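Task: sequence design from structure.
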């Protein structure tokens, strides 16, 4: 963990709230995917890209579920999830006006480096939300030049559109983009092995590698990589970043029981200056320096 991340983590621990959140809106997408907007002003006020919430799914289910924050407004947060198990199935049955208990924001956020303003954001599946949040943060300062590469093997949780933003180094035939990012002026490209129109036929790392290889050494020296998604994807992203000697921050996905560091059920093995150690994804992460994660022992 960098010193900037340590400072961010400490601030996060001082701004952790439990509040009743009212569901404001629910958007449903193919593949049992949902985006819910929840009124949670305390959480929204201190949420950062990479933060997540531990949310109650139903009164009948005592265990909460960890979900990444996709956006945060003045008094609301957006969460995106795909039904996996009974908990999220119960959450998906909620209606607007229903109230859920929200614990958050939790975790170490992404911390961009102003010396590397060309930020490559890579998201896969339910790892897309933190990349959207990071893009929303970066677009507010002209210093940053984000590019998002997003992948999914089920229909995307939005209606993809043809991008009007040219991305040098990416073939013009790869033109599908996320509408929200397009509206923000953030270039994005989509990847899938499912043959979706305008999508790159391959993995996110394949397209990211093509883009990186098109850059001059000077321009690559301004790139930093940020990623969230399934562990095999993150390992591949880490290897790609290392091959170009690029700094890379990853948000790990692990099962969590308490989400506040008490149970240590989400611990992963990382390299530290003092040697290998187990770190809790919930409070020591979920964002880690990719080069410190011991990938061979991860699921």
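Answer:
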């Amino acid at each position: 963990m960098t010193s900037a991340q340590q400072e961010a983590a400490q601030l996060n621990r001082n701004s952790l709230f439990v509040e009743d959140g009212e569901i404001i809106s629910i958007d449903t997408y193919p593949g049992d995917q949902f985006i819910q907007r929840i009124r949670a002003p305390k959480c929204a006020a201190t949420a950062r890209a990479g933060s997540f919430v531990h949310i109650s799914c139903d009164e009948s289910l005592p265990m909460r579920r960890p979900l990444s924050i996709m956006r945060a407004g003045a008094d609301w947060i957006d969460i995106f999830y795909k039904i996996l198990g009974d908990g999220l199935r119960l959450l998906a049955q909620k209606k607007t006006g229903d109230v859920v208990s929200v614990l958050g924001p939790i975790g170490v956020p992404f911390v961009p480096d102003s010396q590397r303003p060309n930020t490559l954001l890579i998201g896969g599946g339910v790892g897309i939300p933190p990349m959207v949040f990071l893009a929303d943060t970066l677009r507010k300062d002209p210093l940053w030049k984000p590019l998002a590469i997003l992948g999914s093997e089920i229909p995307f949780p939005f209606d993809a559109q043809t991008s009007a933003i040219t991305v040098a180094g990416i073939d013009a035939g790869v033109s599908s983009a996320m509408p929200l990012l397009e509206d923000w002026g953030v270039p994005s490209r989509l990847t899938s092995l499912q043959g979706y129109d305008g999508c790159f036929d391959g993995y996110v790392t394949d397209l990211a590698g093509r883009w990186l290889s098109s850059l001059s050494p000077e321009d690559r020296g301004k790139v930093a990589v940020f990623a969230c998604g399934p562990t095999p994807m993150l390992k591949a992203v880490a290897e790609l970043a290392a091959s170009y000697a690029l700094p890379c921050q990853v948000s790990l996905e692990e099962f969590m029981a308490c989400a506040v560091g008490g149970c240590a059920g989400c611990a992963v093995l990382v390299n530290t200056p003092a040697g290998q150690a187990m770190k809790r994804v919930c409070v020591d992460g979920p964002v880690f320096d990719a080069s410190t994660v011991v990938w061979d022992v991860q699921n």
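The longest helix spans residues 231-243.
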